[in-house]
């Protein structure tokens, strides 16, 4: 082994008491020259940093676009970018066999050529894999040619351009290229069936499934058709037949376009109540009369149409992620408040106080508290027979519901028992036999379409309906949002079916399916219909396996509308109201569990949000509660999105790893004097870079994120001579983020502060390209883009000027820091 080379000026190197005078062979390594012969790495890589006990910058680094290396010919430390190595074929060694037996003092993980014998990376500091070029470049270029072709604008060429644009935006050309690359054939039928799921499950349908689907459809219609009548009559304030329409059009269309085979769409209490609030608002605005069923139906159709259109446009815009925007406390608080509103609203017809309420001005349009006070003050005027019928019906349904719940685990077939249909049929027979109508009990009466003809088509988006559209815009949007959220919860709970291959849940396709279904239903003035977990669970438990059960529900409902409407005549209205009260109770009964959970984890903010929504909705109005809840949730989302999450790193003296100085056991973390290490663990966008400058200014003054802005400077200016940005977490960067980062770097450079970037992306990455175009690379210098924090510290030591104190740490510290960062 050759002796250490003296410095170029002839002076003796400083004594190194911790270095042996004659290093052992284990500290010596060789690397292959271009001609295949080995050379002494220890001699070639000796530098001032090596003589001080630290490896030179880049000596231990894997190949990286921004790496640095030492000039070995003149022994001067020169930093320059390393080019990406040419990797040998898989299975071939990049080092001669004789050389592979020699080892350096550091582990092989810190040596690039030794550690990787193929273009594969298995860790954070592995060299980036050289992926083979995708073959979709030709497809994309063909699409671009179609789009930017100089061909004449014939109908055929225009169609080709439109098709190319659609294919590029849906990433179909890329998918086909990937399939071709892997030897898999991707047919156009597979693409079309992805967007029209019925083409997938129809090909796999088995005749043996028909009995289960038919049983589920009969069970569902027997249970939920009476509920649909109740929703329309008592909540939406429209003709009862509008509730039945919601089980004709929406389930059928969802069966064609929906991505969850076992989910059944239908009217819900919350959506029906919101439609009723729109109808009331239009009546209060003088755009209709209390008893004008035709106008009420038109207004309901407009509200449902706007809700469907908003959901459909969100699906086209691929905003399926929006189901994560509104928080669970908001949804739970809002749904519970709806349950309270519905329960108190239905007490009036259950107790037979409708006629008394009609004699008091504007009682139906008062707040929930006013209605409750009205019931308390006029309780002595209740209709005794109506009250008995309503209360008994409510108790019987609740008892049967609880009995079914307890017996279903031991006797699964008990789920087939239609408890609600049983109560409705029994009460209708008693009303007919005992003449309840003549005794003052309100009955449903003749069920017919407001226009006189069933299935009358009416375009809800006519110009003459513009006042109704403007009035319904905000509430209809909320109808769509709540319906989509509930559908999303139901779909995720049911999961993807095992018996149908190729059916994949997709929020964007769900939005499109629900939007188209409700737009079609609005043309016939149906109630809004979305997926419900309870209804879909009943469908699954009673044998429904495919969307055929939804199709059969539509067919059975059509038969009922055509031939059985007269059978609904004698259904007592108190019974329908009692059924709705059961639904309202189910909305309320889940709130204690949520309250207990958030109280246990001390989630005071969530509890405050829930309490605020319930209070505002009950004491003031439904729309005000909606506005406050949505505004609160959006503010929380924006606050979370714009919050800067930079970390200040220091070295753990026990492990040598770099850790957050503001994290746990912060007192054990050793800061590097003369150097500020800033970790940016997230993409930089216009949303979170606004706070980045202020955070960095605070960190430069205080050395921590925890200091108050009014606190005087705690960290000396000399401690910020070097700034290292760890940008491994910056996976994306937009123009605003690049501009703010450029301003930060420029200001530091003007103040004479040296700036380093560790773990930057490869030269082909969009982030690197934006760093170049913004001038950041030119300001800093390519040699200041290194692969690890340790490399940046070594470079700061070797460059002229005061070196950071505490940057060293021996081999263990270097290895620990690199593996930790």
TrEMBL record:
Q: Which residues cross the membrane?
A: 209-229, 235-257, 295-317, 329-347, 382-400, 469-491, 511-534, 546-565, 608-635
- Does Transmembrane show up as a keyword for this record? yes
Q: Where in the cell is it found?
A: Membrane
Point to the regions of Basic and acidic residues compositional bias.
Answer: 30-43, 62-78, 100-120
Sequence ranges assigned to domain STAS in this UniProt record: 665-796
Gene Ontology BP annotations: transmembrane transport
Name of this chain's protein = STAS domain-containing protein
């Amino acid at each position: 082994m050759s002796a250490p080379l003296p410095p170029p000026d002839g002076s003796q190197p400083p004594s190194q008491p911790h270095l042996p005078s004659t290093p052992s062979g284990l500290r010596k390594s060789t690397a292959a020259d271009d001609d295949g012969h080995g050379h002494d790495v220890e001699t070639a890589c000796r530098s001032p940093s090596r003589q001080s006990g630290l490896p030179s910058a880049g000596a231990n680094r894997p190949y990286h676009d921004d790496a640095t290396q030492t000039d070995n010919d003149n022994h001067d430390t020169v930093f320059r970018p390393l080019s990406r190595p040419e990797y040998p074929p898989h299975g071939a060694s990049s080092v001669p066999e004789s050389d592979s037996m020699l080892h350096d003092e550091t582990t092989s993980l810190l040596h690039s050529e030794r550690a990787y014998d193929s273009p594969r990376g298995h860790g954070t500091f592995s060299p980036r894999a050289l992926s083979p070029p995708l073959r979709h470049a030709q497809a994309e270029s063909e699409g671009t040619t179609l789009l930017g072709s100089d061909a004449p604008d014939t109908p055929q060429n225009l169609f080709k351009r439109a098709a190319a644009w659609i294919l590029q935006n849906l990433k179909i050309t890329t998918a086909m290229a990937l399939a071709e690359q892997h030897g898999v054939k991707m047919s156009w039928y597979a693409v079309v069936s992805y967007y029209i799921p019925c083409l997938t499950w129809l090909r796999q349908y088995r005749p043996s499934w028909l009995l289960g689907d038919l049983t589920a459809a009969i069970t569902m219609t027997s249970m939920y058709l009476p509920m649909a009548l109740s929703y329309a009559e008592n909540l939406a304030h429209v003709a009862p037949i509008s509730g039945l329409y919601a089980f004709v059009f929406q389930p059928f269309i969802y069966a064609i376009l929906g991505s969850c085979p076992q989910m059944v769409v239908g009217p819900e209490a919350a959506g029906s109540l919101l439609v009723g609030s729109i109808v009331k608002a239009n009546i209060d605005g003088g755009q209709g009369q209390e008893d004008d069923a035709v106008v009420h139906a038109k207004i309901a159709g407009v509200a449902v149409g706007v809700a469907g259109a908003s959901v459909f446009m969100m699906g086209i815009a691929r905003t399926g992620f929006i189901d994560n925007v509104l928080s669970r406390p908001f949804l739970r608080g809002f749904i519970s408040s709806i349950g309270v509103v519905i329960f108190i609203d239905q007490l009036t017809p259950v107790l037979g106080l409708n006629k008394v309420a009609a004699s008091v001005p504007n009682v139906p349009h008062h707040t929930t508290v006013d209605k409750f006070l009205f019931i308390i003050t006029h309780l002595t005027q209740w209709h005794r027979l109506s009250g008995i019928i309503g209360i008994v019906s409510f108790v019987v349904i609740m008892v049967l519901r609880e009995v079914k719940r307890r017996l279903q685990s031991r006797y699964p077939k008990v789920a087939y028992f239609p408890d609600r249909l049983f109560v409705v049929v029994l009460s209708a027979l008693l009303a007919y036999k005992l003449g309840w109508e003549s005794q003052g009990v309100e009955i449903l009466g003749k069920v017919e379409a407001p226009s006189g003809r069933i299935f009358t088509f009416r375009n809800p988006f006519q110009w003459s309906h513009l006042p109704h559209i403007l009035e319904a815009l905000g509430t209809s949007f909320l109808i769509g949002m709540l319906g989509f959220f509930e559908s999303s919860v139901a779909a995720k709970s049911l999961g993807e079916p095992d018996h149908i291959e190729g059916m994949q849940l997709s929020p964007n396709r769900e939005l499109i399916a629900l939007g188209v279904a409700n737009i079609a239903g609005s043309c016939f003035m149906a109630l809004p219909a979305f997926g419900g977990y309870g209804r879909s669970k009943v469908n699954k438990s009673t044998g429904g396996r495919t969307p055929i059960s939804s199709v059969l529900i539509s067919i059975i409902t059509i038969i009922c509308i055509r031939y059985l409407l007269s059978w609904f005549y004698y259904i007592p209205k108190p019974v329908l109201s009692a059924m709705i009260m059961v639904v309202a109770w189910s909305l309320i009964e889940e709130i204690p569990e949520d309250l207990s959970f958030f109280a246990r984890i001390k989630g005071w903010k969530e509890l405050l949000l829930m309490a605020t929504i319930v209070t505002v909705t009950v004491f003031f109005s439904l729309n005000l509660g909606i506005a406050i809840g949505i505004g609160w949730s959006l503010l929380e989302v924006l606050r979370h999105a714009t919050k800067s999450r930079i970390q200040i790193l220091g070295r753990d003296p026990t492990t040598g790893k770099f850790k957050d100085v503001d994290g746990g056991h912060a007192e054990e973390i050793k800061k590097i004097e003369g150097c500020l290490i800033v970790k940016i663990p997230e993409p930089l966008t216009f949303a979170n870079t606004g706070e980045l400058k202020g955070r960095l200014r605070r960190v430069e003054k205080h050395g921590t994120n925890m200091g108050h802005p009014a606190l005087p400077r705690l960290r000396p200016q000399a401690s910020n001579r070097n700034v290292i940005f760890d940008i491994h977490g910056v996976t994306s960067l937009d123009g605003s983020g690049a501009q703010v980062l450029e301003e930060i770097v420029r200001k530091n450079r003007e103040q004479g502060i040296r700036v380093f970037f560790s773990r930057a992306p490869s030269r082909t990455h969009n982030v690197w390209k934006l760093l170049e175009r913004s001038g950041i690379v030119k300001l800093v210098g390519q040699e200041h883009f290194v692969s690890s924090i340790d490399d940046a510290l070594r470079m700061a030591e070797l460059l002229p000027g005061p070196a950071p104190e505490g940057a060293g740490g021996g081999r263990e510290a270097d290895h620990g820091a690199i593996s930790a960062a």
